[in-house]
Design brief:
Elements: H1 3-23, H2 39-51, E1 58-59, E2 63-64, H3 76-85, H4 99-110, H5 123-146, H6 155-160
Antiparallel strand pairs: 1-2
Helix pairs in contact: 1-5, 2-4, 3-4, 4-5
This protein binds heme C.
């Protein structure tokens, strides 16, 4: 089998499986190692280890930014991104917290500690965020295949014969 065909079927399989993955709407963890359900509990048991109980952060062995009165939290997207993917010294939580736990924590932090943002994030928003990343991954693969990035036998040859 030609490499281009092989890659094409690989891409198709990926697309089909991503479709059924999306359909089944289980873009979430099956369970979290943390037993907490409220944003308050998650913040004080998980995040406060670094950001401190008053969310004012700390500087010492490392720099842990304050989440209290933090103007960067104005957009929930930023917080979703950092909590899910981590950033520098902060570990990613996408494989540690469920969609609902992430949403609850974001809502708690954004409406406490001197933050007064009233727009809420839902578990569905977080699920979409997981999907966006998955989607971007597939897009890169498909794009690379169609642009012949992986292909030694150019994809143009096989298509120009039709
Ligand atoms: C192991 C320590 C640690 C834990 C636990 C932790 N963080 Fe962080 N967090 C950090 C560090 C360090 C940074 C700064 C990263 C950087 O330099 O960009 C940070 C940055 C952030 C930022 C971005 C702040 C800004 O001003 O840019 C947010 C939001 C955040 N953390 C939220 C959380 C939430 C919510 C939790 C709990 C689910 C959490 N963090 C748990 C260490 C931690």
């Amino acid at each position: 089998m030609k490499l281009s065909k092989l890659l094409f079927s690989f891409a198709t399989t990926l697309l089909l499986s991503s479709q059924s993955f999306a359909d089944s709407a289980v873009i979430d963890l099956s369970s979290s190692p943390y037993p907490y359900t409220t944003g308050k509990d998650i913040f004080h048991h998980v995040c406060a280890a670094c950001h401190m109980q008053d969310a004012k952060g700390a500087t010492g062995a490392g720099h842990f930014p304050a989440l209290a009165g933090n103007h960067k939290l104005v957009t929930p997207e930023y917080m979703k991104f950092v909590v899910m993917n981590g950033q520098k010294g902060m570990p990613p939580f996408r494989d540690q917290l469920t969609n609902s736990q992430i949403a609850e924590t974001i809502n708690y932090v954004r409406s406490n500690f001197g933050n007064h943002y009233t727009d809420k994030v839902t578990a569905e928003d977080v699920a979409k965020f997981r999907l966006i990343f998955l989607g971007a991954f597939y897009e890169i693969i498909i794009y690379s295949i169609y642009n012949g990035c992986f292909s030694t036998t150019s994809i143009y040859h096989s298509s120009s014969r039709d």
